[in-house]
Amino acid sequence: MEKRVFSGIKPSGNLHLGNYIGAMKQWVKSQEDGFNIFCVVDLHAITVFQDPTELKNNSYDLAAMLLAVGIDPTKSLLFVQSHNPDHANLAWILNCYLSMGQMNRMTQYKEKSEGKDTVSVGLFDYPSLMAADILLYKTTHVPVGEDQKQHVELTRDIAERINKKYGDIFVLPQASIPKVGGRIMSLSNPAKKMSKSVDDPSGTIGLLDSLDDVKKKIMSAVTDSDNKIVYDPENKPGISNLLEIYCQVSGVEMKDAQEKFSSISYGAFKTEVFESVSLFLSEIQQKFHEKRNINDLSATLEDGAKKAYAISHPILQEMYSRIGFI
Ligand code: TYM
After folding, report:
1. How far apart, in whole angstroms, are the C-alpha atoms of residue 120 and residue 109?
2. Is domain 201-288 in CATH 1.10.240.10, yes or no?
3. Would you say the CB of residue 23 lies under 6 angstroms from ligand 1?
4. CA–CA separation, 57 vs 42, rounded Å?
5. Is 307 in the active site?
6. pLDDT at 141 (0 to 100)
């Protein structure tokens, strides 16, 4: 079977280096073979409130950033989730086959709802929509960061269940998670993952941050007190995280990086990390500004949505017919 790739990112603002390393960088590489579909998942973004003007800007920003890092719309489909109604339609159907017990076991829902007074049904139902995204395109591979693994497993599970009930219709997808960089940690608290959350600005390197800010964040990253630069995520989470970031943006192998930094101080190491991150960021920020043109972006996204619909709609129709819809 041909490799078919689907993945998405929420346009919920504050795109960061974890999103790049865990997802976008893999997407770009994935374009070398198979058929690739990438999505700005705005329906997922509104599971927590989004200011309408910000949501619009963030959606264009995300599309422009994807082009800036190397997503090529002549090779891959790039579109916005709400432009293809099939996603919400299939998600509803999947809702009727997913159990409350199964959904209750989703750790990301637990994390995201913790401490909140009210939580939307959409946030609880998020994995069902994500499963619909993936299954609508007969996806074989889903390049994501570590935190999405459980959702891809749920997708396999529901696909298998529906296939058993109605005959083979869906393909069972697998998550592709990078061995190094699948979980980039916060710089200020390396026990927590780097996230879009506004609560941890000093721990998160935004893809659009100024280089001065990035320098401050990297130079004050939390490390440890033993002054050895070795990759040991369990005992040295801060240093290991910086090493992962360094390797991912510079293309240097982990073993070579450890050798290169074996006899330098933490301060000098952080300067090296900053230099490679800043080289990478200044290049993609420049490209981002070139691509951030609403007319051009709209044309690309519209074309992507038409092509996406042409693939997903027959699959949704097939599902309708097997269920017994007239
Ligand atoms: P989102 O928008 O939260 O994150 C986008 C991608 O970035 C990865 N990621 C990270 N990777 C490494 N280290 C981190 N600290 C880090 N933080 C985020 C995420 O794993 C993700 O790959 N549910 C998805 C969006 C989605 C989707 C889909 C993905 C909707 N439908 C279908 C794949 C297939 C999400 O919330 O992404």
Report:
1. 11
2. yes
3. yes
4. 12
5. no
6. 98
CB of 9 closer than 6 A to ligand 1? yes
CATH of domain 4-181+293-323: 3.40.50.620
Active site residue 3: no
Q: State whether the beta carbon of 133 lies less than 6 angstroms from ligand 1.
A: yes
Residue segments in the chain with a per-residue pLDDT below the cut of 50: none
How does the average pLDDT of the chain come out, rounded? 96
**Predicted local confidence at residue 49, as pLDDT:** 94
* Residue in 86, 94, 41, 38 with CA at minimum distance from that of residue 66: 38
10, 138, 193, 217: which one is catalytic?
193
Q: Domains of the chain: which residue ranges?
A: 4-181+293-323, 201-288
Q: Is the pTM of this model over 0.85?
A: yes
Which one of the listed residues 56, 149, 196, 307 is annotated catalytic? 196
